[in-house]
Amino acid sequence: MDAGWRPLHDELASDENVLGSLEVDLDAQGRYASGAIALTPRRLLVREPGAPGWTARELAPGLRLSASDQGGVGRLALHDAGGRLAHWRYTLGRAPQAARLVELFEAQQAALREGRRWRPDEAHCPRCHAALPPDSEDCPQCERETAAPPSTWVLLRLGRFARPYRGQLLLGFILTLASTAATLVPPYLTIPLMDDVLIPFQNGQRIDPWQVGWLLAGLLGAALAAWGLGWARTYLLALVSERIGADLRTTTFEHLLQLSLDYFGGKRTGDLMARIGSETDRICVFLSLHALDFATDVLMILMTAVILFSISPSLALVTLLPLPFIAWMIHLVRDRLRTGFEKIDRVWSEVTNVLADTIPGIRVVKAFAQESREAGRFRDANRHNLLVNDRLNRTWSLFTPTVSLLTEIGLLVVWGFGVWLVSRGQISVGVLTAFIAYIGRFYTRLDSMSRIVSVTQKAAAGAKRIFDILDHVSNVPEPARPVPLAAPQGRIELRDVGFRYGARAVIRGLNLSIRPGEMIGLVGHSGSGKSTLVNLICRFYDVTDGSIVVDGNDLRQYRVADYRRHIGLVLQEPFLFFGTIAENIAYGRPDATRAEIVAAARAAHAHEFILRLPHGYDSLVGERGQGLSGGERQRISIARALLIDPKILILDEATSSVDTETEKEIQRALDNLVQGRTTIAIAHRLSTLRRADRLVVMDRGQVVEVGSHDELMAREDGAYRRLYDAQARQVDTEADDGERRSHLIAEAALPDAGAASPAKA
């Protein structure tokens, strides 16, 4: 078990084991604290958050354990017939463990009511750390996260991507048919070669050189034809499959870009990268190699079967004896492979998720000396990947040799039955030789088809994960009849706006009217809904209640791209792409001239520091703006927003990453730039919003005050006045602390400071 659970061992009886467990990480007041709950066959052991020891509660038939989510905090409660006995809190990252603990508790209570004892093995899922049910290697909690296992029929949905290449695919099929037929010619020529040439020559008869020459020429011609046709069809179908794979990647990525932000909020970067990258590559390999081999195998088996029955029906029937057994094994193994490969895909995405988290955040990892922790995360994910692969390999390693054994037994039966037919004079030695040659091809292709089951299920699992993206519909849909938006005025009205994140209401009944060219400052405590309101105005999300009206039309009546072209957005955390300074500034207008780029940089007070860079505007910035300070990145972000000359300007903590002097420069630039633009600004420092036309004070998703700075400050008990006074006191406290630190540093720097202290003492 985990190291944090070792003290629990002292509380367990010799015949008692842990069925399930939950680590709670919040105390009764919602503060972070470490606690634990463990379920055994007869007790519920609890270590309250912050408490040193364990307490026990005996299980009884009337007890009930329930898990719920309220306000973003998970709650686990224990009840009996009289009411609630105890409750615990945890962050939602523990929700899978809590749900699993409730399941185990209910199963144990059912066992108590029925008078039986339930003791699953003390095994835990390496993914969610929940206890596993007995005699099972699969975690029900993790299995619930995925839909039905992928069917092989999902591969037929790739037909929409193959449709543009119908002509090439038809030609490839014809070439496959011809090359397969060419490979079947040599065994047929062995019949006259054996019966009319070799056996008579062995018996002392003369042979016809021309007949031998024609037979050998036929063998050579068939080999050359098979080689040429095989090369042509392989090259052609490889080209087609690569284009299908490229179209699949492009379509998936384009669709991904059209999805709303809430989709990305529930996905990991590494998982999406794996789907678009490795999954499409796996499908491409399947189409270019294995699908072609499968088609060749089917044609070879069918054509060989026809030839075998035309030569000797009785011997052909014996040849097909192993086929039902092989088909039964393929059916038996297929479902295990299908679900197994999807599990492998999920587990591999865990590995890529660790990489996607750690590499971009390597500065934070090193700053907090967490290299060993991240290495441990990667090691655990890699170990889980190894475990799932080993489990699948146990099935596959038994299946493949068994199929080979059945084909060898079939070949042995054919030899025995064929020798018996030759001894009775029913077939010639040449016919038996041709049969053996054909059977070699037949069984080889049969064995190859059985192996294709593996790659087919891999491709099906990958296709399912790709189509999971393509089937997802954006929560911000395009209008059926869009209203044109050529020259917006910037009038924004919010009418009874409500918005929910899942079951949690973030904004409720919000009404606000913003005039064209007006500057609005949004203020309020963290979590009051300011950023959410900005996201709704940008239409990153759609309102769940009410409407947002822009220039007299509902926001949802405009095309998303048309509307967002008129919005300039500066985020709290500036994001820069890998490329030059000029390319980052011109991201919203790739066709902007250098003069326009420089003008935007000047307006954002970024021109001076850009010129100090080694290559000026052509200087490369690293990924996410590495090599630039936070203030420099923010000013480039502001220049990027200003270059598109937006009608609506949104500043979400735009000056939070700059020092006071830089903030003043940006504010002076913004004073000119906000003229004629509808501006919505969020700022942590309230002093930066004093020039706003109106301040909108938000609290718990509602507007509680609206007015200018002076009007709101005149209200003695107003929400804005309390916020402003609290921030002023914080600034004064920080200034006093800074002054005391300066005095101490100056005192410590005196040459005789060390000698003066004893004298004063």
Automatic annotation (TrEMBL):
What Pfam family does this protein match (any one)?
Answer: ABC_membrane
Transmembrane stretches, by residue range?
Answer: 169-191, 211-232, 315-333, 398-421, 427-444
**Ranges for domain ABC transporter:** 492-725
Q: Cellular component GO terms, alphabetically?
A: plasma membrane
SMART domains noted in UniProt: AAA
Q: Which UniProt key words apply to this protein?
A: ATP-binding, Cell membrane, Membrane, Nucleotide-binding, Transmembrane, Transmembrane helix, Transport
Report what the protein is called.
Answer: ABC transporter, ATP-binding/permease protein
**Which organism is this protein's natural source?**
Piscinibacter sakaiensis (Ideonella sakaiensis)
Q: What is the lineage of its organism?
A: Bacteria, Pseudomonadati, Pseudomonadota, Betaproteobacteria, Burkholderiales
